[in-house]
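Fig. S4 source data, part A: sequence.
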Amino acid sequence: MPGKERMDDSVAILCQISQLKDMLDKVNEEIEANIKITREIESEIVKCSEAEVSLLAQESELMQRAYMQQFEIKGLMAATAASKTSHKSLEEELGSLKRKQDEILTRMNIQR
């Protein structure tokens, strides 16, 4: 019966090999699934990176516009202040001219 034992041993070894192969196939399937998930994640990372670059460019453009508008506003504020000063000066000058006119008219009326 030594031949039968060898055959039984061979069958047992073949069964173990088959089980190990099945386990290896499952591990390979899991690895492939993980690789697929990793690729999907990498793809999403690339998309996010591209979106981030785009958003950074937009942010830069908006900041540039904001600085330009701040500069323009400061210029307009300075022009407004100068205009108010000029307006006040012109009102004072106009008031002075009206007083002189009144004085002249008063003198003319007195001389008549």
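Fig. S4 source data, part B ends here. Residues 25 and 31 are 10 Å apart (CA to CA).
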